[in-house]
């Protein structure tokens, strides 16, 4: 059983909850109600004033729902498929067939693991090449069977060990991106935690990219960025500001399509409500994509990604 984990800004909340529980055990319902109102006020205040790096910490929270938590809560009759049919099975990528509100879908997710043994087995959610090839196989099944594809993104980045390079991790990621870009069925990506670099975008070339409000999406981890730019990984909070990696930044930059709200205090406080909010967002996105033809879906995705990062400059003419 995992010991309760608290971030610095969560400790005050935990103390309030302990006081509420104590008052209720003493039969002081009026005092407990007053403190519950104070608790909700503080949760709202904290959420409105989180720094980018505090959102990084929330995205990494070990009690946060992972891909399998959402898959089991949102979908019915999930059947997991294993292996890439070339090398082996990578537990950092999970995926298979399921039903979403009566509709058959293919679902893929990056899974980190709850305890130390599972984290080691799943490589802390950093997929190997065979993981991305397994994901590609599932994408191909979705295309062949004309079923929507839903992906859950949560990784610090792809694994980059020597063996991964020898097994062509770059090629595996590139093939996922290329195939997702050309799919003629609806595909939706949900960033539920860390959206780290190419390891994340391999599963996020989608018609709709949704992002939970405390998730992050970035080309590099802030500590790694700080170590490269300023030679000091302790400047991670400064790098997080510069990277614009929050859901709010991503929406403003046009990198994602919508932000999925989380329960008060973060998804780690209420897995059930967090899953319900994700499910509602998925159903809305599917309903928006359903009228599009296969060619329209592919063109929609192409235009969307081509529009990202567009910039112009004015030539300065010398006199």
Task: Please give a structural write-up.
The protein is of the alpha/beta class and 319 residues long. It folds into two domains: 10-49; 55-306, 2-enoyl-CoA Hydratase, Chain A, domain 1, CATH 3.90.226.10. It contains 14 helices and eight strands. It has helices spanning 11-25, 29-48, 52-59, 67-74, 116-121, 129-145, 162-166, 169-181, 197-201, 222-229, 236-243, 247-253, 271-289, 294-306; strands spanning 76-80, 93-100, 103-110, 149-155, 187-196, 208-212, 216-218, 258-260. Strands 1, 2, 3, 4, 5, 6, 7 and 8 form an eight-stranded mixed β-sheet that branches. Helix 4 (67-74) packs across helix 13. The longest helix is centred in the first third of the chain and has 20 residues, at 29-48. The chain is globular and about 60 Å long. It starts with 10 loop residues before the first helix and ends in a 13-residue tail after the last helix. The model has no long low-confidence stretch (mean pLDDT 92).
